[in-house]
Amino acid sequence: MIAIIDYDAGNMKSVEKALHFLGKDYQVTDKREEILRADHVILPGVGAFGMAMEQLKERGLVEVLREVAGKGTPFLGVCLGMQLLFDESDEDPGVAGLSLLQGKIARIPTGTYEKIPHMGWNSLKITPGSRLFANVPDESFVYFVHSYYAHAHDRTAVAATTSYNTEIDAAVEKGNLFGCQFHPEKSSETGLTILRNFVNL
Hints:
Elements: E1 2-5, H1 12-21, E2 26-29, H2 32-37, E3 40-43, H3 49-58, H4 61-70, E4 75-78, H5 80-83, E5 88-89, E6 103-107, E7 118-123, E8 125-126, E9 141-146, E10 148-152, E11 158-163, E12 167-174, E13 177-180, H6 188-199
Parallel strand pairs: 1-2, 1-3, 3-4, 4-13, 5-6
Antiparallel strand pairs: 6-10, 7-9, 8-11, 11-12, 12-13
């Protein structure tokens, strides 16, 4: 069973729809016992970093998610859910993230592409050997909606990058921890392949 974390900050319906299409059993939950029993855990997310962390704290989920990470359960953060895996964000200075991966979330700078948030399809430069991107061709396009982006301190954890005014860590992968800044559940067949790779780990 796949646990989709319910904390009033998730884009859960599209994730549910994608998992249903893949024929996978899932449960939307904020219950500790159900989360810890799950074979895989997905932390979706839309909205602000600080508010999302507050919701996780109020539901007692911060330590639960750290326990999930520590016990080796495959754990995927999507969009804001990926950002929450890191230490902190310029969006809400002083608010600590989950610190499962070391790095900081920064605002996308202005530049060639003036429109922020970054919203639309961008191609990925995929790190060879990534489990998350098995059978996904380099330069595949996926769908983004975000104004902030992660920069991982451990560059070996970066599974894919994209370019939008700056180089953006589009996906991370370290041990049982995975993250996608883009929305795989909204990224057509490429996104379904990525989700299939994750749930089949």
